[in-house]
Amino acid sequence: MSVETNSNDVAAEHIQELSKIKEDVPKLLTAASHAISALTNRPLDSPSSADPLAARKEAYSAHTQTYFTLVRQIQDNLMREVGALEDAGVIPAKAEKVERAAQTQREGAEVKNGGLGELDVGWLNARTRDVGVGKAGELVAEARRRLEEREGEGDVSME
After folding, report:
1. Which of 158, 134, 135, 133 is nearest to 145 (CA)?
2. Membrane-spanning regions, if any (predicted)?
3. How far apart are CA 51 and CA 109, in angstroms?
4. What is the distance between the alpha carbons of residues 105 and 11, in angstroms, rounded to a whole number?
5. Percent with pLDDT over 90 in the chain
6. What is the reported pLDDT for 5?
């Protein structure tokens, strides 16, 4: 029972840490939106100075700095959590995942059937004759039907 309690404590601790990291995401998006907004003609939120271009440059610089600081902070926090989860045995080590992914990519990288994969070209080619013969028969039947209609009207003689 102590193992179950310990794993529950570890899970609760990591969930709290991930929730703290999650709180930075809206701040990140806000900083990005303010930086983009500084590049538009939309009026700035702050009181305008004598030089609007300088104010926009300053706002853009400040918001991009905040954005990249938050990106770095979130990245560092997530990497720390990944390390802690690996140490706790909750997720496997990185090397195992990378090796499996590389092996899967190599297996899928083989060119099969001239790049057509599992498509059987012979099967398609064998059916093209059937389609052509069928369509030709339909066209002949349609032509015959139209000629017979015209013959019935007296426009054409089929002798």
Report:
1. 158
2. none
3. 57
4. 32
5. 26
6. 57
